[in-house]
Design brief:
Rossmann fold, 2 domains, six-stranded mixed beta sheet, four-stranded antiparallel beta sheet, 14 strands
Length: about 300
């Protein structure tokens, strides 16, 4: 199977050994490009032990030579976006546990921030490598009565922050509910931001009865439906277009396991280096496949420095 993304996408820098090898290749061959690749089996488990002959990279349908394959390593800039609207009231305990699981697995060697979007987006913990600071921030997560979610606004502002800081390896993980969303940003704008930022986006959406929660704003049925369409469009396309993944969860107890699976994917990704011929026009589509038909690959190309 295959995954595609525009040329503005980005992947993660590999281990120290791999950086040295890749840097030699890149200096020796100016047309070398890199891609972060996730490979899963039929059970959704990460697959290890693959080499250059196992991958097929295509740009606009044209096969490219795979030069090297190695572990992706750390060095990521990660934003954890958490729904703290009234709709998340019953899920906050499991949200906290899932976030702790993620931080335990990903804090080493990575910078992580914690951002809430119950009401206008707010940075609860600035980007840090400190697991202690993140744990304290997670304990401070509470749902806000009468507040709707602003997920699209949170995504847009986070992506804008990545762009201003010229973050080289951005990653966003979103924990949200299906409650009411009052975001001002459109799905089209947010999806454009995702492509331009080169961030991989992972989303977990918990089903709730949106009509069971009151908010401080009166909203018509038509406006509510339009907001629902915008939200679902971002959840449907954002993760898939960026090399990430979206999952719908029926119960909050499933959050911990889902977050552990994301950690497993991220810790087992490949850094694939391939060759691109000289061209004045960048490719519109880059895809990655693995030779074994039973395996699924998703790729996020690294923007050249």
């Amino acid at each position: 199977m295959q995954s595609s993304r525009g040329v503005s996408a980005i992947c993660l820098i590999g281990s120290i050994c791999l950086i040295f090898v890749a840097s030699v290749d890149l200096h020796g061959q100016s047309n070398a490009r890199q891609m972060l690749v996730t490979v899963l089996d039929d059970d959704g488990s990460p697959v290890g032990g693959l080499g250059p002959t196992d991958f097929v990279i295509r740009e606009d349908g044209n096969a490219r030579e795979v030069l090297s394959v190695g572990p992706a390593g750390a060095g990521r800039q990660i934003a954890l976006l958490v729904d703290t609207s009234e709709a998340a009231t019953g899920a906050l305990f499991d949200f906290r546990n899932g976030l702790k699981t993620f931080v335990d697995g990903m804090s080493e060697g990575n910078e992580i921030s914690l951002i809430t979007f119950g009401g206008p987006p707010r940075i609860l913990v600035k980007s840090t490598t400190s697991a202690v600071r993140l744990a304290d921030g997670i304990e401070d997560l509470f749902a806000l009565p009468g507040q709707a979610a602003y997920m699209l606004d949170a995504l847009d502002q986070t992506l804008e922050g990545f762009a201003r800081r010229e973050v080289p390896r951005p990653l966003i993980v979103v924990l949200t509910t299906e409650g009411i969303d009052y975001s001002n940003r459109s799905a089209h704008l947010v999806l454009e931001r995702i492509d331009e930022s080169a961030a991989a986006v992972y989303t977990l959406s918990l089903r709730v009865d949106r009509n069971a929660f009151a908010t401080s704003r009166v909203i018509s049925a038509l406006e509510l439906r339009n907001q629902e369409i915008e939200r679902e469009l971002v959840l449907a396309r954002g993760p898939g277009n960026s090399g990430g993944r979206h999952r719908d969860l029926l119960v909050s107890l499933a959050i911990g396991r889902a977050m552990q699976e994301i950690v497993g994917e991220l810790r087992n990704q490949y850094l694939v280096v391939y060759s691109r011929p000289d061209s004045l026009i960048p490719p519109e589509e880059i895809t990655v496949n693995v030779e074994q038909q039973s395996l699924t690959a998703r790729g996020t190309p690294l923007r050249p420095e």
